[in-house]
Write a structure and sequence with these properties.
Layout (H helix, E strand, L loop, with lengths): L10 H10 L2 E3 H8 L3 H17 L12 E3 H8 L3 H13 L5
Antiparallel strand pairs: 1-2
Helix pairs in contact: 1-5, 2-3
């Protein structure tokens, strides 16, 4: 499998991404993170390769470039419970943007 594409994201961005999108497309990644189209397509391809290696069925045909958000989080090792706790602390203290 190829090298993991790097994503730097703050807690609130990840929190919103997880709860606003059931599936994530290249366009969604572009809007949320401001990445180039090619980087977004690479991330989606990488997640689909991960799914194939784990024996997971594709969420959509290969021509549709979407992946489940929870699988994206799994690939990157982002723990949504921890992110949610941090987001609530940020919101409680008025630090959420």
């Amino acid at each position: 499998m190829a090298r993991v594409p790097r994503i730097n994201a703050d807690t609130m961005t990840l929190f919103r991404l997880y709860y606003q999108y059931e599936t994530v497309s290249s366009k969604d990644l572009q809007e949320v993170f401001g990445f180039s189209r090619s980087k977004c397509a690479y991330i989606i391809r990488y997640v689909r390769e991960y799914m194939a290696e784990k024996g997971m069925k594709p969420y959509a045909p290969p021509t549709v470039v979407i992946v489940p958000t929870n699988i994206l989080f799994e690939v990157y090792g982002w723990d949504i419970e921890q992110i949610t706790r941090k987001a609530r602390v940020l919101q409680k203290n008025g630090l959420a943007g």
